[in-house]
Amino acid sequence: MKKTSLTIILFAALLFTSCASEFNKVYKSQDYKYKYEYAKECFANGKYTRAITLLNELITLAKGSENAQESLYMLAMAQYNTKDYENAATTFKRYMSNYPKGYYAEMAEYYIGQSLYMSTPEPRLDQSQTVAAITSFQEYLDLFPDAKMKQTAQQRLFELQDKLVQKELYNAQLYFDLGHYFGNCSSGGNNYEACVITAQNALKDYPYSKLRENFAVLVMKSKFEIAQQSVEEKKLERYQDAEDECYGFINEYPDSKEKATAEKYIAKCREVTKE
After folding, report:
1. Residue 127, Cβ neighbours under 10 Å: how many?
2. What does 169-222 look like in DSSP terms, one character per residue?
3. Cβ–Cβ < 8 Å for 99, 69
4. Coil vs helix vs strand at 149
5. How far apart are CA 94 and CA 76, in angstroms?
6. Confidence check: pLDDT of 187 > 70
7. pLDDT tier, 16 (very low <50, low <70, confident <90, very high otherwise)
8. CA angle 23, 24, 30 (to 5 degrees)
9. For the CA atoms of 153, 155, 157, 161, what is the dihedral angle to 10 degrees?
10. How many CA atoms lie within 13 Å of 100's alpha carbon, on the beta-carbon side?
11. CA atoms of 176 and 65, how far apart (whole Å)
12. Torsion of CA 141, 144, 146, 152, to 10 degrees
C-alpha cells in the first residue's frame, strides 16, 4: 500500500516537473503562433494563471493581427476566472475601447459590469463600486437591448440597487441611534433631523424598495423625538407634524408591527396639541 502511494506521488511530481518544463519552454520561445496556441490551450483547460502570463505578452505582439481581439478577450476572461476582478474590469474596458464593434463586444460589455458587481463591498462600506457596476450594467442594456444576458443584467441591477438602499438604511439608522448625541452635529442640526432627511431622500429615490417601511418607521420615530426635544415656541408645530406622520404611517402600513408605536405616539401628541 505504501509502495503504491509513493509511486503515485513520484509520478505526480514527475508530471508537474514535465509540465513546468514545457511551460518554461513556451514562455521563452520566440515563436508567436506557438505561444498563442499554447495560451489558448491553457485557457481551455482552466490553467488561467499560465494563460495570463502568456497573454500579457501576446496582446502587445498580436496588436493589429487577426488574433488581437481574441487575445485581449481571453486575457480579461482569464483574469475574471482567477477572481482578479479589478484587472478583469480594466481589461474588458480596454477591449471595448479598442473594439467597440468587435466580435466579443457584447460579452465584454457585460463582464465589465459583472466584474465590478463581484467586487462590490457589503452595504456598510463605501458604495462607489456599486454605483459603477450599476452604470456599467445600464450601459450594457442600452448598447445591447436584445442582449443574451439581459435578464441576468436586470437582476444584477435590482441586487445592486438593494445594496444602495441598505446602505442608506444603515446611515439613517445610525443617525437615529446617535439620537441626542450632538458631538457630530457641527452644522447646528441634530441626528434625528439628519435621520429624517436621509430616510425621506431614500423613499424618494427608491419608491418601490422592499425596505420602504423601515425608512417610514425611522421618519415617524425621529419626528416624534424632534417634537419631544423642541423648544417651547416650536413644540406645538412639531407635535402636529409628528402626529400627521403617525397617521400617514398607519394608513400606509395598517398591518405593521410598529402600528402600536404609532398609536402610542398619537396619544402623546394629542396631549400637547389639544392643550
Report:
1. 20
2. HHHHHHHHHHTT--TT-TTS--HHHHHHHHHHHHHHH-TT-TTHHHHHHHHHHH
3. yes
4. coil
5. 9
6. no
7. very low
8. 100
9. -170
10. 3
11. 61
12. -40
What CA–CA distance (Å, rounded) separates 269 from 246?
10
- Report H helices in the chain: 2-28, 32-44, 48-61, 68-81, 85-98, 105-118, 128-143, 150-178, 191-205, 212-228, 232-252, 259-273
Please count the residues of the chain: 275
b/e 179-204 (16+ beta carbons within 10 angstroms → b): eeeeeeeeeeebbbbbbbebbbebbe
- The whole-angstrom separation of Cα 220 and Cα 248 is 9
- The answer on pLDDT for 189 being more than 70 is no
Our measurement of the distance from residue 117's CA atom to the centroid of its chain's CA atoms, rounded to an integer in Å, reads 5
Yes or no: say if 192 and 225 are a contact pair by the CB < 8 Å rule. yes
247: CB partners within 8 A, 6+ apart: 262, 266
Q: Which three cell numbers stand for residue 139?
A: 450601459
Residue recorded with cell 441626542: 180
Give the pLDDT of residue 31: 73
Cα distance between the two ends of the chain: 93
Give me the half-sphere count of Cα atoms (radius 13 Å) on the Cβ side of residue 106.
10
Give the confidence band of 275 by pLDDT, cuts at 50, 70, 90: low
Quick count: other Cβ atoms within 10 Å of Cβ 100?
Answer: 11
Q: Which residues contact 258 (CB under 8 A, 6 or more apart)?
A: 217, 220, 249
Distance CA 118, CA 120 (A): 6
Rg, C-alpha atoms of the chain: 29
What is the pLDDT, as a whole number, of residue 120? 96
